[in-house]
Design brief:
By secondary structure, the protein is mainly α. 65% of the residues lie in helices and 3% in strands. The chain has a two-stranded antiparallel sheet.
Length: 214
């Protein structure tokens, strides 16, 4: 009769009343009940809650001439509801929750210090009219210098031939433009690397501060 085990009882749970305790005290000495039911009755009478299934089983097996009315036995009692055990979270879910919590904390921290931390101004090339004009003049001067060098070189090499001298000037102009373009690409890539290194170092410096404040 494992189903009458008070430790594994399931179903409705009732709050114990004095009529219930008196009935269970009488059931402990009722020889019409089995030894197991008498032990259960002895165990239940000291409890604050009584499973309905066990109480009804004891009532059914007891002497009909001495047992109380079933409705009177339940009079004044109420249902006791037990909350289910919380489900255990898996390790994967726990790690995911920790990551989500850290992301939320970083966003909250960034929201708190956005008015305090100065915004980083990214310097873009040719952001002002002065830079554009200076770069244009520099490129024009470089191309003109390349044209003169090429023109003079081809004129000296080909006995002052006008056509070849002009071709040499054009070649010098193109080479000067290519060199200027290459220098501009190198300068821009270096500026991007400096900006990315600054941003990564600043973000890494904010992370320990956030964890310390926790």
């Amino acid at each position: 009769m494992d189903q009458l085990d008070p430790r594994n009882a399931s179903g409705l749970i009732l709050s114990a009343t004095e009529p219930m305790r008196s009935f269970l005290a009488l059931a402990c000495g009722d020889h019409r009940l089995s030894a197991e039911l008498r032990d259960i009755a002895s165990d239940l009478r000291s409890r604050n809650t009584v499973p309905y299934k066990l109480l009804r089983g004891i009532w059914t097996g007891s002497d009909p001439s001495t047992r109380p009315d079933l409705l009177g036995l339940f009079s004044g009692s109420g249902f006791v509801f037990t909350s289910p055990k919380p489900r255990e979270k898996s390790e994967e879910l726990k790690l995911r929750l920790v990551k989500l919590r850290e992301i939320a904390e970083r966003k909250e921290y960034a929201e708190l210090v956005k008015d305090i931390t100065p915004r980083k101004q990214v310097e873009e090339p040719f952001s002002s009219y002065k830079d554009q004009l200076g770069f244009g003049l520099h490129v024009g001067l470089t191309m003109f210098t390349g044209y003169l060098v090429g023109y003079a070189s081809f004129r000296a090499l080909f006995n002052r031939n006008p056509a070849l001298s002009a071709a040499g000037g054009i070649l010098g102009l193109v080479l000067a433009m290519l060199v200027e373009t290459l220098l501009f690409i190198i300068k821009t890539s270096k500026d991007d690397q400096i900006q990315s290194s600054k941003s990564s170092s600043s973000s890494s410096s904010f992370t320990p501060t956030t964890k310390k404040n926790q």
